[in-house]
Amino acid sequence: MKKIYCLLGFIVCAFYACLEDKGNDIYRELNDVTIERMKDTTVEQFTHLQITPEIAVSDGNFNPENYTYLWHMYITYGSGNPTKSDTLSFEKDLDVEVTSIPEEYTLVFEMTDKKTGIQYVPDRLTQVTVVNSYSKGMMALSNVNGEANVTFVNVVGSVVEDAYQKVNGEVAGKKPTGVRYITSMIAGAEKMVVIMTDDERGGVVVKPLDMSYVMDFKDMFYFQPEIVKPQSFGTHSVTLYEYVNNNGLLYRRENRANGYPKYGVAVKGDYEKIAPFDFFFSMVNYRAYFYDQGKERFISMKCPLQWDEIITLPDDLTGEFNPNSVGMQMVWGGLFGNEYSMSSGRAVMVDDSGEHYMLSFEVGKDKDGNPQFSPKKKRQLSHPGGKEAHTFTTSQKANFLYYGYAGKIACVSFDTGNLLMEYEVGGGNVDYIECDQVGNTNQMWVGVSDGSGAKNSGSIVVLEMSTDGSLKEVARYKNVCGKVVDFEYKK
User: Fold this and answer.
1) What per-residue confidence (pLDDT) applies to 369?
2) What percent of the chain is predicted at pLDDT more than 90?
3) Are 278 and 233 in contact (CB under 8 A)?
4) Which portions of the sequence form the region Disordered (predicted)?
5) Selection from 89-98, 253-262, 334-343, 431-440 with the highest mean pLDDT
């Protein structure tokens, strides 16, 4: 009986050994093809997308005739769920004109063994960004003979001059002051570009994808203010609201409905005139910080779901300056960091005698939701060109202040106040500088011109910023604008 059990045991072991060997054969068969990862790419609509996948087989004898191929892509949403898939090609090497609408796509390459039916795909999906002339890139607003002029440089380097005028047959207005791309994370909310002007229209609202006219900005209010003069915008995904600083007063609209909801009445609170700079919004702390030019002090605003009101900061704050009594006018400022944690405040102030000062501070909130404002440094800007400078910027990391004067850009440390370097841009006077806070955060955009404001008198220069504050030119678009007054990156 024991011999029978031994015999049965031997048979069972041999059977499983055979299965294991067969499994190894199957495993080798399923894994004898490797498709190398393909790089994410950006392609302009109606141009060709060309990709040659790198394919390797275990025995080194790859025969393309032994396989079928399929390329397709679908729009990528935040959830990662695919929508309708567009078939692109059945060839091994992709070479196709991209007619898909400008969007973010996931590209899929599938390869199937004709004999076994086994399917192979890369171990990582490829992202493809389809852009057109206006869908993604940098907008430059310039003054051309007193009129607003938009030049668009998309992410693949294509330049469209007179972008608004070409689409709409007229200029956007007179005395241009700024341009902003306004979006929302809420489904159904309309994205829009606002071209701001200091005229009776207050600027125009346009569609981001094709720059087509929607309405005059003065028509964005339920009760039109006596002066329509948009100066800066702010938004917060949690509150579902978007704000405009119109001539020093804050107005709010609920930006979660279809169409273009209008602004209501001015936000209440103890303030006189908000400085005309982008709002100091902290996405994590649910709080906004502003500078009141009238009372020359910093103020705050809670961002709850149903109401807003300007409030003053605590009166026991200590540091190198008193935020409740700064006693100077703000000539530039902002809150910097990534979009989920903007907590490093930087500003340039001018006193009654014309002296300029650099202020740095940190913001947040305590466990009870009360504002936290920590004054850090106050340094006099006494270096060459400091008093004459009219354009300032800093990067997301906010370590350095850059200012432009004549044909130069100077870099100064916020911590020490020391001049770190001067960079000669070339091509004319430096009219406007701005660090890209959204697209490539290591880049600075510079507008240079002869100062006349004539058509094609200005150029756009792209500089790369190093960690030590130094600058290096990476691109130059010559004679594509007038005198630049603002840049804005549009996703």
Assistant:
1) 65
2) 63
3) yes
4) 365-389
5) 89-98
Query: Domain coordinates of the chain in residue numbers?
Result: 33-130
Q: What's the confidence (pLDDT) of residue 95?
A: 96
- Mark 390-426 as b/e (b = at least 16 C-beta within 10 Å): ebbbbbbebbbbbbbbeebbbbbbbeebebbeebebe
Query: 281 falls in which pLDDT band (50, 70, 90)?
Result: low
Of 428, 400, 449, 447, nearest in space to 138 by CA: 447
| Residue 339 pLDDT | 59
Sort 258 into a burial class: Cβ within 10 Å, 0-12 / 13-18 / 19+. exposed
pLDDT at 416: 94
Which tops the pLDDT comparison, 302 or 380?
380
Q: Which residue has the tokens 């399929």?
A: 70
The count of other CB atoms within 10 Å of the CB of residue 38 is: 19
Residues 6 or more apart whose CB falls under 8 angstroms from that of 152 comprise 133, 134, 137, 138, 139, 140, 159, 160, 163, 211
Amino acid at site 289: Y
* Token pair listed for 68: 């079928």
Question: Could you tell me if 377 and 358 are in contact, meaning their C-beta atoms sit under 8 angstroms apart?
Answer: yes
DSSP helix/strand/coil, 205? strand
DSSP E strands, 397-470: 400-405, 408-413, 419-424, 429-435, 443-449, 458-465
* Res. 4: pLDDT tops 60: no
Residue 24: pLDDT over 50 = no
Closest-CA residue to 319 (of 371, 364, 374, 372): 374
Structure tokens given for 330: 């703000």
Segment of 10-19, 28-37, 65-74, 78-87 carrying the highest mean pLDDT = 65-74
CATH number of 33-130: 2.60.40.10
The residue among 425, 439, 422 whose CA lies nearest residue 386 is 422
Give me the mean pLDDT over the 206-229 stretch. 95
Is there a contact between 128 and 140 (Cβ–Cβ < 8 Å)?
Answer: no
- What CA–CA distance (Å, rounded) separates 217 from 178? 13
The neighbour count for residue 56, using CB atoms within 10 Å, is 11
Contacting residues for 421 by C-beta, under 8 A, at least 6 apart: 410, 411, 469, 470, 471
Which residues share a beta bridge with 275? none
Q: Tell me how far CA of residue 214 lies from CA of 131, 193, 217, in angstroms.
A: 22, 10, 9
Contact between 438 and 461 (Cβ < 8 Å) = no
Cβ proximity of 462 and 472 under 8 Å:
no
Reading phi first (left if > 0) and then psi (alpha if -120 to 50, else beta), residue 403 is in beta
